[in-house]
Amino acid sequence: MTLFPQANSWYLGANVPGKPRVFMPYVGGVGAYRAKCEEVAARQYEGFSVA
């Protein structure tokens, strides 16, 4: 449980008019996050549009 969803902050997108408030933290841990980032980079950012 956390108070983050109750806050009216940029963390939820509240600073962008018309943007839905969404709480989407990544709770998988730093190691898992880094591994996923490395996997995405190894695949040349497949699925991303990089300009």
Q: What is the global morphology?
A: flat
Secondary structure: number of strands = 0
Please give the largest β-sheet.
none
Question: Structural class of the helix and strand makeup?
Answer: mainly alpha
Order of helices and strands: H
- Radius of gyration from the alpha-carbon trace, in angstroms: 15 Å
Q: How many helical stretches?
A: 1
Q: Which residues sit in consecutive blocks of at least 5 with pLDDT less than 50?
A: none
The whole-number mean of residue pLDDT values reads: 86
Helical fraction: 25-40%
Beta-strand portion reads under 5%
Our measurement of the CA-to-CA distance between the termini, rounded to an integer number of angstroms, reads 39 Å
Key words describing this protein structure:
mainly alpha, 25% helix
Description of the structure:
The chain has 51 residues and is mostly helical. The protein is built from 1 helix and no strands. It is flat, with a radius of gyration of 15 Å. It starts with 29 loop residues before the first helix and ends in a 9-residue tail after the last helix.
Describe this structure in a few short sentences:
The protein has one helix and no strands. The chain is mainly α and about 50 residues long. The longest helix is centred in the last third of the chain and has 13 residues.
